[in-house]
């Protein structure tokens, strides 16, 4: 343990800091970092370098070179810089590189120097040029702040939703500020700048002078300022070497420190651990690194070469030409275990495990001491936590072995924390490997989350490692393996060295039917890369037609899209393609295309019936479908307001029906034309609406209006069957109440429908008196029903004597619906069998309901 703490440096009484090497950089830089434009992404992200940026020559040999390296110094990509003069480099939260030019244009590249897009910071920046620029991160996204040559500030808080803001002007500002920074307060982005000994705060609307609390009057002019990683803390450096540290709101002071160095540092960044009481900043000069905090002392490191500081949530990365180091505060758990002469439970447990491996009895003594204090669970937890903060695998194993050893002596110790830590460390060790080059700490890993880490591996095209991590952590396929395979396939289609068939086959073999995979998205990527045939082959593996069709339409493969839509059986999808074809093709080609697809043609006809009637006519004309053309003209005739137009449309229908050899339809349409003309004359003669009535309704209306001769004319002209005409006439006369005319009509000649309808219609209109006139004229087989309808049940005896069978009378009673009258009781004693009597008794309530006299059929003593 003494050796382990050799690189610990105390700051105050409770805090220790250590600096250890992450990688030996082998990027072979010939230039010093001071001669390059440098930007390193946080969370162990990549490093961007722009070499030869200061040179103005444009010859190919001296043209600036943009290079992107991993954190371990492996070259990811490089391109010669052919655009304008660069002022600043920066990284977005999604690890896209921002290149800010002197004219205010911001170019965005991915990790492999592939151009994505660009945007401008506005005309004012273009006119006055960019003096300085900063890339910052807020809850809204990645932002860019610009200081122009006119000493004005412009910024945007989210480059993905570009909204430029021009900050207020600083009164009397004639030269650039000595230093400035971007802050966030209450979700509002502001700019803090220093001019000499004055601090100005620029918000959306105003410029105000601020004074840090507790600032010494003799502090001097401000030369440097730094904002913490979470934008909550602020540090200021003055020309007297005075360092002030406090809240970014400038409402509270943490501490101050006098560095005694008057020259401004090249960089000043915060170095603090989450939930730590120590506040510290790191300052870098040419050959010296200083850590200053709330202590009278500081930590100094000698720098052998020019370095660059990268702030992290829990420390600072230090880049140089030969090494990549990490400086951080020792976590509390590690301090408790490894501090010299520590008697913490975790330290005793670690010693116990080491003695146990030596087969020494001291192991038992250490364990008993921990157990007597009932601190064994705490000791195990300390060892597990400390293992996460260690970078060296051997130290991790030592601490985890101690935790595992201690768990054996605890009943029901939950294993989840131990298992989770083993998994996390295995993932972290795999990505810290030199070939991968992502030196995440455990704290950063937990903040970043496994999902974001997998995204970053995918961005680096490290698909096998990402898949192995997903399988090891047993992540759901849709969130893990499926998503990564989809990204791999999208990258695969960009490779031009293989044929479309080979790429499509390789993708299908790898992906198969993996859940969550969308072949349409992969095909869309292939199409965007100009590989249309590959996209079509990939769509063959897409099981959802709803995903196939839109992309095929986008690729101008409309006929194939139509076939796929028809195969799916989804009518909405077919309609989508058909309407797309209608807008894309000329009329003739469109109709010919539909001719080869009967299903699509049928659906389009249905659409036209409701939406485009004239187009429907063109379809029928093209097919020489005279029957449907006739139907079309008939349907169209009803939309005509003038009778001449309607007759003309029906005449066209007659012609089409004859061409279709449908004589019945033609004759029926001719009759309709004749009826329309007659109805027009009737309407003109009698000043009453007759148009659009059917033939039967026209005849019935004429009879009701008393125009019997006109009704007879229609009867003869349209050859209405006798039975139908008699029914129409007696119904209309009864409705009119013209019973005299009805009686005359019944005697005009023998009724083709008999006389029972006369009885029924009269009863229906509540005229039993008229109904009784026709009852005797009813044929014998229907007479019982007629008598019952008119309520003349007394005549049943005559019918009995006249030979009407019991069954006929029974059926008559049933058909009459139980009609009843005052003579019904006497009918029971007319010699009928008991079954008839029962029928009469059952029908009694029906008769009573119709107002018949309810005379008792039988006496209380059972007599007749």
From TrEMBL:
Keywords: Coiled coil, Endosome, Lysosome, Membrane, Protein transport, Transport. Residues 4-420 form the Vps16 N-terminal domain. GO terms for cellular component: CORVET complex; HOPS complex; late endosome membrane; lysosomal membrane. Residues 349-376 form a coiled coil. Residues 517-793 form the Vps16 C-terminal domain. It is a peripheral membrane protein. The keyword Cell membrane does not apply. InterPro entries: VPS16, Vps16_C, Vps16_C_sf, Vps16_N. It is found in: Late endosome membrane; Lysosome membrane. Core component of at least two putative endosomal tethering complexes, the homotypic fusion and vacuole protein sorting (HOPS) complex and the class C core vacuole/endosome tethering (CORVET) complex. Their common core is composed of the class C Vps proteins VPS11, VPS16, VPS18 and VPS33A, which in HOPS further associates with VPS39 and VPS41 and in CORVET with VPS8 and TGFBRAP1. Interacts with RAB5C. Interacts with STX17, MON1B. Associates with adapter protein complex 3 (AP-3) and clathrin:AP-3 complexes. Belongs to the VPS16 family. This is Vacuolar protein sorting-associated protein 16 homolog. It comes from Pavo cristatus (Indian peafowl).
